[in-house]
Amino acid sequence: RDSPNHKQWYQRRVRGNNKAFPSQFDVKLKAGDTEEVPELPRESYKTDICYQVLVDNRDSPNHKQGIMFLGTDQRKFYTIPGIDYILHDNLLPYEDTSPSQPIQHDLFPRFLEKKSGPGGVASYYSTDMLHKFHEDNFDRLRLKDVHVQTTAGIRVFVCTFYMGSKSEAPTDQHWWRYTIMIENLGDVAVQLRERTWCIYSENDYRETITGTGVVGQEPIIPVGGCFQYSSMINLRSPTGHMWGTYLFEREDKKLCNASIPPSLLESRGLST
Question: Which of 16, 39, 77, 198 has the smallest set of CB atoms within 10 Å of its CB?
């Protein structure tokens, strides 16, 4: 990070060898409360650094994330795989020693090029294509808020992104994608058995959704490990919020609940 264009390699602290290069955003890290029907924390936050990263394809079996867009025709969703967002505290720098490109990702040679820097030391720098990519998609790529809450040794991070609206009678459908990382800070492994979501929109619509596991899985999270997934939500109003709980079964067969922090769903401020 010697300059805005120079890239540093990192691996993720809690998810193994996800080699990555960052683009940097300042984000508001907001801590939720523990009430059953929480109020959104509007002023209680700290500013932190979040990086947008390319994920090494060699880690793909454990990482299927990507960034998702609603196309300009407002009809189809598009995904660019292998891109993630990581908070500064979850990164560890490392020095690459591989003879070829340090990150195995289709976008790597298109986003970065190797050049000689000061003192003749070679390093990787941003290409015009990467600058253009960020210029065209900045509002949809930028992460503004990260909501986090820890309950019973389970830490839950929630990030939300507005994707756009689709015109469907009788009103528009507003779409968000959200990414959740669940980290086990406890002393025993846990398995996610059930989720409960509460969704509230500004037109006073409220819905409670309960289901088994998440994204078709009931993941086992070892001590010190984590599980991350992404999904989508749509509302018929441009603003709302969501919160909920996860039900976990501990390795000792005891059950515990972990809170999903309240997250604001906003569509305002997105350039088109």
Answer: 39
pTM, two decimals, is: 0.74
Collect all residues with Cβ–Cβ distance below 8 Å to 175 and sequence separation of at least 6.
70, 77, 162, 163, 164, 165, 166, 232, 233, 234
pLDDT single digits (tens) 59-105: 655 455 666 666 655 567 777 777 777 777 777 666 666 666 777 78
Neighbours of 11 (CB within 10 A): 17
Query: CA-based diameter of the chain, in Å?
Result: 63
Which two structure tokens, joined as six digits, stand for 173?
A: 């459908």
Beta-carbon contacts of residue 260 (< 8 Å; ≥ 6 apart): 149, 156, 158, 180, 195, 197, 242, 243, 244, 245, 246
| pLDDT tens per residue across span 147-203 | 889 999 999 999 888 887 877 656 778 888 888 989 999 999 999 999 999 999 877
